[in-house]
Amino acid sequence: MKPSIWYFDDVNLFKILCPHKYPAYKKDHSLDIYKKSDYIYFEEDQANKIYLIDSGKVKIGYYTEEGDEIVKAILTKGEIFGEKAILGVEKRSEFAQSIDNNTSICKVSKDTMYGLMRDNVSVSFKIYKFIGLRMKKLERRLQLLLFKDVKTRLLEFLNELCEEYGHDCEHTGDKVIVHPYTQKDIASLIGTSRPTLSTVMNELKEAKEISFSRKEIRFLNKNSLSVS
């Protein structure tokens, strides 16, 4: 199975980077709560903070000139976003929006993050590794969106979900994925509509390759995990 490109190495960055873990920075630590559909920042906002997800889900995306929404990522507990501020980017090139009713976010100023990175070599290493992996992820997503059909994009995404959320069922030998995404989330991430995603998933179900419920996808034939 290929290395993951959809998430950061199964590491909870919130636990590593949240300032309350470090006495020198604890006084600057606070958590903000966002409801579903609340925006955390908009395109063209000043990029002076980095954000850590304590709980909930956040959608990262942008709007085309025609007004269409393009989803770049859906992030969950333990992940960070707004990281381009560390690289000196002054304005946001995307929006960040809560898609849960109780999303808890730790905002870290750019200067505080620089201090954490300067004082903790392991933190600095993890941040730069994260940025590199996220760049690879976005490049791969672009390739998939441009050159692959919906079924291939879906199977590629499910491959990656297997690495993060999958386990083998001892009794049946199936590969089981218990995940936090809705069908709308998955459709957005692979660049298709929800009805089209539903059609493809039902085709795979009828072919007895998968079964699925609201939060679980089960591969009935492990060979279906391979993507051309």
From TrEMBL:
Classification via Pfam families: cNMP_binding (PF00027), HTH_Crp_2 (PF13545)
All residue ranges annotated as the HTH crp-type domain in the record: 148-223
Keyword tags: DNA-binding, Transcription, Transcription regulation
Top-level taxon in the UniProt lineage: Bacteria
Cyclic nucleotide-binding domain mapped to chain residues: 13-129
PANTHER family per the UniProt record, alphabetical: CRP FAMILY TRANSCRIPTIONAL REGULATORY PROTEIN, HTH-TYPE TRANSCRIPTIONAL REGULATOR ARCR
Name of the protein in its database record: Crp/Fnr family transcriptional regulator
